[in-house]
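Notebook entry, structure prediction.
Reason for the run: the old model in the group folder had no record of what sequence produced it. Starting over properly, with the input documented here first.
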Amino acid sequence: MSFEQTLARLEQIASSLDRDDLPLEEALRLFEEGIAKLREANAALGEAEGKVQRLIEGASGVFALEEES
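New structure, fully documented this time:
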């Protein structure tokens, strides 16, 4: 799932959790899914930040992205 898809799903979950008629069991399931999606998004942001940092550190005139092995 892409970062954008993860964010879209988080928005759907937040909208669902705002409903007054949501059964408790469903709310708990959605909350748990939301936490998992939040962790996924946070990991993707951390990875992107690392790539940007490597680009900045290598900015001695030539930009190069080092792939992690």
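Summary: Residues 24-57 form the longest helix (34 residues).
The old model has been moved to the deprecated folder.
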